[in-house]
From TrEMBL:
Descriptive protein name: Nucleoside diphosphate kinase-like domain-containing protein
Organism annotation: Crotalaria pallida (Smooth rattlebox)
Reactions it catalyzes: a ribonucleoside 5'-diphosphate + ATP = a ribonucleoside 5'-triphosphate + ADP; a 2'-deoxyribonucleoside 5'-diphosphate + ATP = a 2'-deoxyribonucleoside 5'-triphosphate + ADP
Domain Nucleoside diphosphate kinase-like: from-to ranges: 2-142
Gene Ontology molecular function terms on file: ATP binding; nucleoside diphosphate kinase activity
Location of this fragment in the whole protein: 29 to 175 of 177
Upper lineage: Eukaryota, Viridiplantae, Streptophyta, Embryophyta, Tracheophyta
């Protein structure tokens, strides 16, 4: 069976009109998008999602960033999806990605270590948690955009 991972196009990626370019790369690299939705996360929800970073110095800034606009959340599927999506995103620090991984998504649309345009699960355990966080039965408190 194919592996699943959770991907997020963050507010700068979505508002900067990078969605089509990102999706083109996703499909080109052999992923299928099995679920997707646009949500505008509130503070409580982002804090829960990034709970493991709650003691970090960048936490409050990360929460501001992730609540600054809508995000696109996707479940991506392929063999080795978790590692392959992380490779396609490139390094966390988008300013370094531009030099070391010029064809990566973060090189294309990220700015720096925080505003890095996309998220991907870092292990199969977090993929399971993050997919059910956004798409499981208990995900009803995530605020959904109505345009
Ligand atoms: P992400 O992969 O979604 O996981 C945690 C996020 O915190 C990360 O992407 C960045 O957006 C942000 N982040 C990680 N490290 C730093 C840092 N050193 N300074 C600011 N933001 C960071």
């Amino acid at each position: 069976e194919k592996e699943k991972t959770l991907a997020i196009i963050k507010p700068d990626g979505l508002l900067g009109n990078y969605t089509n370019d990102i999706k083109r790369k996703v499909l080109e690299y052999g992923f299928s998008i099995s679920k997707e939705k646009i949500v505008h996360l509130d503070e409580v929800t982002v804090k829960r999602f990034y709970a493991e970073h709650s003691s970090k110095s960048f936490f409050s800034s990360l929460i501001n960033y992730m609540t600054s606009g809508p995000v696109l959340v996707m479940v991506l599927e392929k063999d080795n999806a978790i590692a392959d999506w992380r490779a396609l995103m490139g390094p966390t620090d988008a300013s370094k990605a531009k030099i070391t991984h010029p064809h990566s998504i973060r090189a294309m649309c990220g700015l720096n270590t925080e505003k890095n345009c996309v998220h991907g699960s870092d292990s199969s355990k977090s993929a399971q948690r993050e997919i059910s966080f956004f798409f499981g039965e208990l995900s009803t408190d995530v605020i959904t955009e109505h345009d």
